[in-house]
Specification:
The protein is mainly alpha-helical. It has 17 helices and no strands. The protein is globular and about 55 Å long. The relative contact order is 0.22.
Length: 409
Amino acid sequence: MSSSLTVPRASAMYVGALLGPGLLVVPGLTASIAGPASVLAWSGLLVLSGLLGWVFAALGVRLPSATGVRGYVAAGLGARAAATTSWTFLAGIITGTPIVSMIGASYVAELTGSGRVTACLAAAGITAVVLVITSRGLRTSSAVQSGLVVLLLGVVMLSVAGGASSSDAGNWTPFAPHGWTAVGTAAAPLMLAFVGWEAAAPLTARLADPRRQLPRIVAITLVVTSVLYLALAAVTIGALGPDGGGSTPVAKLLVLAVGPAGVALASVSAVVLTIGTINAYVSGAATLARSLTRDPRECDTPPHWLNTAILASSGVLISLFGLGVLDLDSLVAVPSTMFLLVYLGCTASAWRVLSGGVRVAAAVAFAVVLVVLAFTALAGVAAAAVALVAWLSTRDRNADREQFPLVRR
């Protein structure tokens, strides 16, 4: 990859970070939780996404060479808080990898007409493939990422077209069949479709002029994701009803658009996008993971302990899903909540580091993230436990050895 990214190519990478395979399943999950009122959760989180994009853009301009979320949090809250946030971020990746794999695998199971066993086997296979790729140090280039984004955009637009032609106004009533509090409950798993700003943050170091280019990139990303998210959420309810088609809504929408071949198209797209997304996250976490354990080697492969943790997490979570102990809705909430805590740390730090309107945006985003966290139930408890253990395990005398810049206007 070139050391300097253009606005179109960087925009494609940002869009790709936000529009992962979670988009293929969360419309159905949120519709099942809140019915047609789930569009309110989508709209609210789009506002939050805009605020987060603004905050991360400002942090990227100030700290273009920072090591992702660790550098951002350290600048305002100190090294110990940065380490805690970083471990929580890695926990999100460790738990999220098998869950994202299961999202892609659910589409494979839909294609074959099989059940959970096939989905679990496919998820294990996807996870294994990604770990082999990342262990060899292979990264998805910006050109490949652009191709994946084009594929996803094409699939979503085709799904929207198929759903729009089969929509029924009657599917929008009752609007809130499970009560208004269900809107907040739906927002927690929905966060899986909105994480990505933190993953794309290191790209600012590859921009020739971040101060000029980054606002344009963020604006393009927000427009594209907002239009696609709201359109897909609306047609999922309008065409598939209040339950939103279960765990494979896009496959059902594609069937409406192109017939039985739509399931095959959705399945292939889901697997490709799943592999690309996990590869980007795990590869991107390699440097962060090594820095937290003070690994002196400079390479782009994840440390062995990270791969081992992902394998262990995959074995547990995929097994629990296969046994029917946990459903996909519950599993999606786990990494989503981890990333919510990461955003909490980043926005708190931004409030201290930044000034002007973006400082207000950071405060508002912080408050909204707190509200969403209030609806995470057991997933929130698990995420808080991870953060607490990370905080208690980080000794001040070790954290103080590392120096991070505090940049002010």
